[in-house]
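User: My instructor asked us to take a sequence, write out its structure as tokens, and then describe one feature of it. I'm not sure where to start. Here is the sequence I was given:
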Amino acid sequence: MDGSSERDHEGMPKRLTVLAYALFGFALALAGVAVLGALLIGVDRETAWSTFLITNTAIGLSAAPCGLLIARAKPDNPIGWLFLIAGIAPLVTAAMTPLLIYGGEHDWPQLALRLIVTIYLFSWSWGVFCCLPLILQLFPTGKPVSRHWRVLVWLTVATAALGNLFVGPTSEYGVSSFLLAPWWAVTERVAAVLAPLIILASVASLMVRFIRGSETVRQQVLWLAVAVILVILINFPIWFDLPSGQTILLLLSFPLIPAAVTIAVLRHGLYDVRIVVSRLVVYTLLTVGVIAIYVGLVAVLDRVLRGFGAPVIAALAIALAFNPVRVRLQRLVDRAVYGTRRDPVAAVSAVGQRLVGDDLGGVADALRETLRLSYVGIERKTGGGVESSERSATTQSWPLIYDREPIGNLIVGPRHGERRLSGSDRRVIDVVAAPLAIVLQAQALTEDLKASRERVIEAAEEERSRLRRELHDSLGPLLTGAAFKADGIALAAQHRPERAESLAIELADQLRQSVEGVRQLAYGLRPAALDELGLVGALAEQGRRLGPVKVVIDAPESLPTLSSSVEVAAYRIATEALTNVIRHSDAKLASVRLETNDGTLEMIITDDGTSTLPWSPGLGLTSIKSRASEIGGACEAGPTADGGRVVATLPLRVSR
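Assistant: Let's start with the prediction itself. The structure tokens for your sequence are:
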């Protein structure tokens, strides 16, 4: 069962590909019938233009190949199939044209002529009034902009059906279509009103898609915009009613639209379309401006000079002003298309506005938007970072250096359609990288400060918890018992003095135990020097206070993060060992060496004093070993040939 479903799933694209080729072959066959039929019956050039035989064939042969390419590559996208239909529709009309001409000249039966006229009138408008608006509405994803825009899709199909299914009489052909309807005038007026509105709404949907879409969608829409601009330029004479074929030019420029759509759907990133848009906008504005200024200057100078050399002077004035205007206009258009790559100060200003908020994500977005880049990423050396847009296949990296030390990388992707960054882009990024490195370092310092503050708070909380336990478990019972004994002494003092004396002795022992407990609590408090200086700094500070003995601290540049209890134990063991050196030896030099290995902290305290007898386990040595064992460590101490030596091995972290 599973294998059958997989074969069906894989076979569907193959069947669709066969269908696409079949429709394309049908389009070619129709074009062949149109051309061969026109040659056989001797259709002259004027008739071929007036019956739109040439334009229908040109439109069909331009739309059908584009439809085949899109349908074969992306069969799920309806745009390819719409282009195939848009190519077949005018080609059907073109194929009927020689038959209509020949049949009318040779008095074919009315039934045959009516059938030909019906097909001739019914076919071509589906491509122009149905498929083309639908392509604009579904471009480039194959779906409407949103669910609400589906209404426009159905309205487009309904309007095309209304205009094609009910037609009026066609006396110029000698017969009328089978679809002739008494109410044709009403449906024609309705379709004539709705068709322009549908075209405008289709263009509006493209604008909405451009505004809401991603960078890729905008690139695709720009390809279509280039085609529209070229169509306008090619049909420039129509707007001024110049003799040039008029609607013929409009129809012949149609192939630019399917070509642009095909590139946008299949290869939109092959070339940076913004370069094309930039040049088209510049030279379109220049062309219009030159014509307007020339006409205006000639009119003004003709009045002033009364026709003496007015055209020549106007031409010279335009020639002198043309290049400065072109350069200025090109800068304005490039700024809109490429951003501020020619103005590093503007780019730094845009990035600086985001730096004020300490927002690396905003900085990446600002840099990408300012230079119109495809991707910008900021990576920290310690890991992590931010990204703006999806990472492209081609990127370039800039090291972010602070105080001659690399602290991260700025990764940039070139614009869509470009393989590398230009020199102007690189210069702008060089300027931006310096303040970005400072911000990255400032953020690292801020994070370190935050982590240090969290460690201090954690250590304080541990101290509070330990004091609470000690007060509750040790001092609490002792003081409570002392209070009861004091009451007993008061009662026994009058009647049993000997009992009162015994209780007083016990009370004194309990109070001494309480005092010792308070002393132990004070001794176990976390030294403030650990929070201010760290373990190494606190040990160095303690060594400076030991008077005649010189203390050397040997530790790595940075220790791994220690839990509060381990840090306090290490500090107390070292200070107790150094205190024993002062009290019990004749040493002049002592050293504390710290090493980390396999998740442990090894602390070795040595001195150069003379010590040959074994050490008796006094209070200090007992305290050292007790502190090590409390956190799961071990400690060895004793004399050596070179002096005293204490070795404590402690875990880096202690689980609570």
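For the description part of your assignment, you could build on this observation: The longest strand covers residues 405-413. Try explaining in your own words what that tells you about the chain.
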